[in-house]
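Good day; I would like, with your permission, to put a structural problem before you. The record follows directly beneath this note:
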Amino acid sequence: MSALGISQVAVVMGSCTAGGAYVPAMADESIIVRQQGTIFLAGPPLVKAATGEVVSAEDLGGADLHCKTSGVTDHYATDDQHALYLARQVIGNLNHSSSNAYSDYLSLSSTISVGGGPGAAEKIPIEKPRFDAKEIYGIVGSNLTKTFDVREVIARIFDGSRFTEFKKMYGDTLVCGYARLYGNLVGVIGNNGVLFSESALKGAHFIQLCAQRRIPLIFLQNITGKLGNFASFSCLK
């Protein structure tokens, strides 16, 4: 469905068990509520029956696990209201016009296999960044061995200094998200340290989403290297 331009967004406010666990896992973007939403193929009773291990639903498939460790979910919500707010942000970054995207898809589905196109979101008024772009010189500096938070650079480039981050808690050495540049929706990818395997998976997922939605990408590259699984598990820095 996603390849046909029909986006799927999942908001996990309760338990997604067995077959239901595949819905958020296969969605384009998924949101999960802390201490409330869970995703697993088998719940705590079945785990205890099969292995004898006693585990809580939150530890087995809660928001912290899936947003920080497994990467199954993309956005971490503190409550239902926050989850719906995040869902509105996700929908706002689909790169579709609210008025004609569906009709455009119906008329062009035989020739267009990805999202965006004529139904793409309209350009909005241009805003200046809230922070002075000249401050980037002080943030980045001339010392190549000194790290900096790429989010500080992003805040000084894009419209209104607004940035909707994707998978913020997973693979945190790569920052991905949506912003506006001169009123146009863009995807942003910026290195925030050494790349790990989780960061690479996150980046690949985000690039795929932007390709399907026809959202142009802006790369802020400051690559210092990449660590493989052995180095990652050995906690090498």
About this structure: Residues 194 and 225 are 5 Å apart (CA to CA). DSSP finds ten helices and nine strands in the chain. The longest helix spans residues 197-213.
